[in-house]
Design a protein that fits this description.
Layout lengths: L8 E7 L6 H19 L3 E5 L5 H11 L4 E5 L3 H5 L5 H13 L2 E4 L8 H13 L2 E6 L10 H10 L4 E5 L5 E5 L14 H11 L1 E2 L1
Parallel strand pairs: 1-2, 1-5, 2-3, 3-4, 5-6
Antiparallel strand pairs: 4-8, 6-7
Length: 202
């Protein structure tokens, strides 16, 4: 019988592209990640997309804190690059791809915004707990952070939200740190082997 404290647990993330205070958000995400690492255990894995803005801050913060990451893209890397207006942010994204445990493309051949919605739904499906950087406004369409927050709440996923304006964080659905991993993979390799079959490797 596997020890639930030794199972890899997945920390999902989603946030806005436009970040009013990047340095402030970076600081609070690092604080949150440190606490999540303590609560979820040393085998926590961060999973997110890699859009400009909050996603890149999250992925970089994971690397800084030695939390391994998995990146899920909406479409091929070449197509994804077209959604970046700042070349420096794209260069950072490429570097973060290079140090991730794995990088996948969501299957289906969709285009925006449906492709971004598909990424979010996959993240929600596999995460044990979700961290958001969200401004609190209702969803204005599909594939955005507001919609992802609503869907995470609907399934009762433990959810912690950083207010993108005030940078204050609160649990909207509390997490039970002793809870077994949702999908019960015994090792990181088991998880990655499964995702290799489910997604398209890039």
């Amino acid at each position: 019988m596997s020890d639930p404290t030794r199972q890899p647990k997945i920390l999902g993330f989603a946030g806005h592209r436009n970040v009013p205070d990047p340095e402030g958000l970076r600081n609070i995400i690092r604080e949150e990640l440190s606490e999540m690492k303590d609560k979820l255990g040393g085998r926590v894995i961060g999973i997110s997309s890699a859009a400009a803005g909050a996603d890149l801050i999250f992925l970089r913060s994971c690397i800084d804190l030695r939390i391994p990451t998995i990146v899920v893209l909406p479409f091929s890397e070449a197509r994804f690059a077209e959604d970046f207006e700042d070349s420096a942010e794209w260069e950072l994204a490429e570097k973060l791809f290079g140090v991730a445990l794995a990088k996948y493309i969501t299957p289906g051949g969709r285009e925006a915004p449906e492709a971004y919605q598909a990424v979010s739904r996959n993240l929600i499906e596999w995460a044990d707990v979700f961290l958001f950087a969200w401004g609190g406004k209702p969803a204005r369409g599909i594939g955005g952070t507001g919609e992802t927050v609503e869907e995470a709440r609907e399934i009762g996923l433990p959810t912690r939200i950083i207010d993108a304006g005030t940078l204050e964080a609160e649990w909207t659905i509390p997490m039970d740190s002793g809870r077994k991993a949702r999908h019960g993979f015994k090792t990181r390799k088991d998880l990655l082997d499964f995702l290799d079959l489910r997604f398209v490797a890039d």
